[in-house]
UniProtKB/TrEMBL annotation:
Residues covered by the Gcp-like domain: 37-205
Pfam family for this entry, one: TsaD
UniProt-listed GO biological process terms: tRNA threonylcarbamoyladenosine modification
GO CC terms in record: cytosol
Domain of life where this protein originates: Bacteria
SUPFAM superfamilies reported for this sequence: Actin-like ATPase domain
Protein name: Peptidase M22
Organism: Kaistella jeonii
Length: 225
């Protein structure tokens, strides 16, 4: 079962090919300038070449559905849906926050809390059990302040993602650890995608929309004088 995995919800433009749960090839790059529109299809081509297969060999498409960058999610979703329509193969979608916890499971943490940087002091987040990886709270947009997550004082927790940097500056939790180098990645879509594939939890390609969580907020350009 050859699967193309696409994750474009963050600064990391990430593409992977797997045969079932076996990673065959990974192409990804973290860029401050969000290069999904420039890099995604090149990465797909490189990943296919690296896995020594063609588009026609694919059996399914897997997508990190968000939350995250509005533009990045639109680009990833449009590409994924295009491949599914053209190849007549199913689409599976995974919460992008779930692709950030796998490296930290069973490492002694009570909770793993991914934080995706949003605007100002806002983050997209959810809480995951450190052993099972089960999501124990709903995904939400949260404005951070000094008292955020204070109820977890005494528990061994780790905040991961680019939002962890600003969290570390203001949170007052003595037992917390932080790792701001983690981004959603296509390689961590694989396990969850295979679970969904076995359960036949496919998306309706025609009506699928990414998990934006919030409406798009554009930046108004100043009128030239």
């Amino acid at each position: 079962m050859k699967i193309l995995h696409i994750e474009t919800s963050s600064k990391n433009c990430s593409v992977a090919i797997s045969d079932g749960d076996e990673l065959l090839c990974l192409c990804e790059e973290v860029s401050e300038n969000y290069k999904q529109s420039e890099s995604l299809h090149t990465f797909v081509q490189w990943a296919l070449e690296g896995a020594k297969i063609t588009l026609q060999d694919l059996d399914a498409i897997s997508l990190g559905k968000g939350p995250g960058s509005y533009t990045g999610l639109r680009i990833g979703a449009s590409s994924a849906k295009g491949f599914c329509f053209g190849l007549q193969i199913p689409l599976l979608a995974v919460n992008s926050l779930e692709t950030m916890i796998e490296p930290f499971l069973n490492k002694g943490y009570d909770l793993i809390i991914p934080l995706i940087d949003a605007r100002r002091m806002e983050v997209y987040c959810a809480n995951f059990d450190g052993k099972s990886g089960e999501m124990v709270t709903v995904t939400e947009a949260k404005i951070l302040d000094g008292s955020s997550f204070q109820k977890f004082e005494g528990k061994k927790i780790i905040f991961v993602g680019d939002g962890a940097k600003k969290a570390k500056e203001i949170l007052e939790i003595s037992t917390a650890e932080y790792d701001d180098t983690i981004f959603p990645s296509a390689k961590y879509l694989i396990k969850k995608t295979c679970d969904k594939l076995n359960k036949k939890e496919f998306e309706d390609v025609a009506y699928f929309e990414p998990f934006y969580l919030k409406d798009f907020q554009g930046v108004k350009k100043k009128k030239s004088e």
